[in-house]
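INFO batch 0412 | record 1 of 1 | parsing
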Amino acid sequence: MHRTLKTGRIFYTFFCVLIIIGLVMTMACHSKPEETDLLLPVEFSSIPRNLILTSPSVEKLEVRVRSTPKHIELIKGMDIKYVVDLYSDLASDPAGEKVRIDPRIYFIPVLKKRIFIPSGVEILSVKPSYIRISLEKKMVKSFSVSVPYTGAEAPGYVALSARIEPPAVTLTGPQSIIESIKSLKTKPVDLTNARESFKKKIPVDLKELNTESDPSIVTVFIPLEKKQMTKVFDDIPVELKNTRGKESVIPSKISLTIKGGHDMLNRREAREKIKVTIDVKGLKPGVYVRNAVIDMPLELIMISARPEIFTVKVE
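INFO prediction complete | emitting tokens
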């Protein structure tokens, strides 16, 4: 009986040892270090007011790290950035003496101590080891703005030059870029089938230049009006008013050159709305020289008439 109990205890102890060993091995496997790559965005601070940063050679650093899976998962969820402090990196030399930061190209070393990561994470490598930057003189200049059009207006309508508010904007950017700009435009305005004036807000087109516009959005007013054209109407009859049946006019027809809206002048009834008359009321028998009265819609403008005077004969 005692031997059986003793044997049972031995097997029980051995079983517990196996479980503990298994747990230890499992924990050891789970805590085994892993390696992974992190991409850290690069930011810049302490840029002198009279200078502007252009063309950094990299936007992200490739950082190789090693740690436990738990730490790896933790660090991947963190918002870690690499900050280049131009004052610290460029404004003093190794001897501690102050130096000027001039507009030119610089190569700034990447420092591991600037990468703030949790303890227990080892940084194996950082690529690249240097960041190339270019500092240019900052320039501010005012530019007038024009508005390009795309698309075709509705038939019979034409868009006039846009009015812009404000009429000019201020650009801030590298001197080399600002001096290269000859003109400034907004993004194109679509006129497809437009038949009335309209107003809209539209951004200034900077064409991906490294510049800032103040303001960046302007208000444009696009005036549309009916398209004007000139048309000749031949053989318009000259009518006599208040006749007694024995009057005549020479010539009996007139040719008119008329300016007006494209849509109105091209209508079939446009000719019918033009009336040319001479009033012979009260004229005694004889021959008279008279001007004709030309009556047409107010939207039309007469440019010329041939002939301008007529001979009226009353018998």
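INFO post-check: The chain has a mean pLDDT of 86.
INFO record closed
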